[in-house]
Amino acid sequence: MSAAQAAIPDAMHAEWTKLRTVSGTAWLLAGVVAATIAVSAAAVAATKCTTGLGCPADTTKLSLTGVYLGQAVVAILAVLAVGNEYSTGMMQVTLAAMPRRLTVLAAKAVIVGALALVAGTLAVAGSLVAGRLMLPGNGFTAAHGFAALSLGHGSTLRAACGSVLYLALIAMLGLGIATAVRDSAVAIGLSLGLLYLPPILIALTVTSPVWLHRLQRYTPMTAGLTIQDTTGLHGLPITPWAGLGVLALWAAAALLIGGLLLRVRDA
Amino acid sequence: MTPGTITPYRSAEPAGHDGFAQLLRAEWIKFRSVRGWIIGMVVALLLMLAVGLLGVQADIACTSGPHAPVKHGAACVTPVPVGPGGEPVTDNFYFVRQPLTGNGSITARVTSLTGLQQSAASSAPSISGSQHILRVVQPWSKAGIIIKQGTRQGSAYAAMMVTGGNGVRMQYDYTQDVAGMAGKASAAHPRWLRLTRSGDTITGYDSADGTQWAKVGSADLSGLPTTVQVGLFATSPTHVYLSSSFGGSSSNGVPSMATGVFDRVGVSGQHAGAWAGDAVGGRQGLVPPGAVSQGIVPQGGTEGYRQAGGTFTVAGSGDIAPVTGGPGSGVGPSGTIEQHLVGTFAGLIAVVVIATMFITAEYRRGLIRVTLAASPRRGRVLAAKAVVIGLVTFVLGLVASVISVLIGTRLSANQGIYVFPVSWLTEARVVGGTAVLLAVGAIIALAVGTILRRSAAAITAVIVGVVLTYILAMASLVPLPVAEWLLRVTPAAGFAIQQSLPKWPQVAGVYGLPDYYPLTPWAGFAVLCGYAVLAMGLAVFLLRRRDV
Q: Can you count the helices (H) and strands (E) in chain B?
């Protein structure tokens, strides 16, 4: 086996060892799951459907509300995977051991993405179970026209899988940004600003329909989370999978910029 | 031989100052010598301006008639009448009036107040049948007597009235409201109302029988002309309701009308004697075809009056009240001054990052050991840091919010958006409050950074606690009760300091997000400060207790 062929598995092994042996990783993964499920369950618990009229129709999206918070923890995980190496000077050791910098970034992306997928799956599954158990008690019953949440429904399955992918893509976005700016604090600020600012603009300030439409279609969180919509799909500014695609483009762009800068800069 | 004592060594150098001023200076030098932080603060300022001002992207087009040319921008802003206090007001009612010169009084007995309202469920613009008209009176439908400077909208007045659900009231100059007798007016339980003018003072009385009069209140209408208009009026505000659904709640309004029946009308003083009817502010919306034949509405139109013997029937629509935000305002595309401060969030995120690094960078570099060795009183070190970061952020926030509001309101007006005027005191509270809000946010970030000692976790905690909760509440991403709860108990409650429009108890409206917060401005701000105090307390406690 030549050195080049061995590079990727070795790099992944190294990255896995680094992440595994830092105590923060386990806590953050647990945090993703706990934060997502807790907020989802709280949102479901607070929503009552008493008359059948004016009930929030999209029970799937309601049950997945926690992703709004879970993504912040995923972003920390991804940002720290790179940021911690820069803050401790470990990056120089890493790059000395593995001079192929894009290989290092790719290995990090695979490991962090896999962790985000695992945590995301648990978080989304837990949220949906909470929703399925709690929704009927709050009036979301068959009598009011609501079926129990089930992955047997195509759109619910799409929302669930899409939410897991969403969290993984958020990890890629955070990883790319952190690689580009090399500082955890700035990277997390940029990531969360990129995610959380556009919804405020959409809700409060932008009055021009053209700009509103653009913001809804092309900003990472608003577009990406359309993957959770299961009702009123015709009224969406962007189709669910296309919305997730927009987030994927943001993540790819962040990784690309991060990768390029990693390649051309000194460590 | 006596045992000798050993004198410990003391340096001959005079002890250095370790006062708070020196600490402040040290922390200020640390702050300004990191180029990244200065750049970051400038970025925060530019972000605030950019986000706040770029959001003003409206292209309002309007036309005054089917063949009139289409106008754009500032030409579309409909002027809103302004009350004696400078506040925007609604002044639409039906007025049966005559001039009164000098002192005098008007008395009337109200025997009935009924109402009509367009059905909210079928709020189609055109009304095809009377089944869409409901016979309900609004809680703030009004019929009564009024003394008014003139028929110009926004002119000074004082009025005694019966209301649909709030008893007898004396109201004057749009913002003032005094409660009189409780209960509804009916033929069996009529309400007698009286207003007397003496100079600039107008006093209101009410009575159940016309003999036992009780004073309700008195209004000082300075500058009232010698000749005023006195008479009967009726008006009924837009019925506003909230249609809420998950992922969006919208407020809507449908027109309503009130009909008051008066008798025993008497005017004393130097008056004309003949009555004239006027729809102040123009005729209003509700046109119920069945209403005329049913005798609820006088012949010849929606609003108007009918006199039969000594009995007057007056029907009117509109309101005499301060303007509120939302659909009840009827002012077209409108905005508030705080809409130009939405960039506060962008600025806050940048400020939180820098304020957190102000302490976590010391941990990362080990500088904290030097800092605490140099000044061992740890609480004071943190206090000095808080003062420095707080002041820097305050100054930056003040500059950004003053510019945002000054330029933003002009931009909005140029694009055809009516910006609700507010008093300079309110404007100062909104602008200054925004700067203090940012400063307190920075202090919270500093404290959380001290507690967690890790930048990424601390920054996320603060951004999630302040910004995410705000998004969830404001962008209708969670159901309304949850949204209001979030804006009561989380640090995001502090954004209430930016609310410029007051809630008027005497005006029915949807006082909901995003224009109105569940807490009053200062209460919301107190919640934010509470978090700051808690976080600083915990930070000082942990900083003292822990090794560095």
A: 11, 22
**How far is the C-alpha of B455 from the C-alpha of B463, rounded, in Å?**
12
Confidence category of residue A202, pLDDT binned at 50, 70, 90:
confident
Domain presence at residue B505 = no
Residues B290 and B384 in one domain: no
Per residue in A118-130, pLDDT (tens digit) is 999 999 999 999 9
Domain endpoint, select from B300, B325, B350:
B325
Residue of A nearest to B57 (CA): A208
Lowest mean pLDDT among B1-5, B254-258, B364-368: B1-5
Kindly report the CATH number assigned to the domain that includes residue B315.
2.60.120
| E-state strands within B404-505 | 418-419
Residues B276 and B174 in one domain: yes
Are residues B351 and B306 part of one domain? Answer: no
ipTM: 0.88
Task: Please report residues of B whose CB lies closer than 8 A to that of A63.
Answer: none
Structural domain including B488 reads: 20-56+335-499+515-545
What pLDDT was estimated at residue B19? 83
Total structural domains in chain B?
2
How far from the centroid of its chain's Cα atoms is residue B443's Cα? 27
Q: Which residues contact B528 (CB under 8 A, 6 or more apart)?
A: B437, B440, B441, B444, B491, B493, B494
Q: Does B31 have pLDDT greater than 50?
A: yes
User: Taking CB atoms and an 8 Å limit, are A58 and B470 in contact across chains?
Assistant: no
Exposure b/e, B62-75, CB count within 10 A at least 16 = b? beeeeeeeeeebee
Quick one: B143 and B245 in the same domain? yes
**Is B318 found in the same domain as B340?**
no
| B492, amino acid identity | A
Q: Rounded CA gap, B507 and B379, in Å?
A: 49
Residues 6+ apart with CB under 8 A from B350: A189, A193, B40, B41, B43, B44, B47
Residues B357, B301 share a domain: no
Q: Amino acid identity of B103?
A: N
pLDDT at A143: 72
In contact, B133 and B127? CB cutoff 8 Å: yes
> CA-nearest residue of chain A to B340?
A205
pLDDT of residue A98: 84
**Residue where a domain stops, chosen among B325, B347, B367:** B325
Q: How far apart are CA B93 and CA B97, in angstroms?
A: 12
Residues B320, B365, single domain; the answer is no
Rounded to a whole number, what is the distance in Å from the CA of B52 to chain A's nearest CA? 8
Reference B24, options B306, B365, B353, B390; nearest CA is B390
Chain B residues with CB inside 8 Å of A61's CB? 246-247
The answer on B137 and B164 residing in a single domain is yes
CB–CB contacts below 8 A, A to B: 137
Q: What is the pLDDT of residues A38-71, one digit of tens each?
A: 999 998 888 877 665 556 668 898 899 999 999 9
Looking at the whole model, is its pTM more than 0.90? no
Closest CA to A187 of A31, A74, A69, A80: A80
Give how far A200 is from chain B: nearest CA, Å: 6
Pairwise CB contact (< 8 Å): A192 & B463: yes
Tell me the domain boundaries of chain A. Answer: 6-264
Which chain B residues contact residue A47 at CB under 8 A?
246, 479, 482
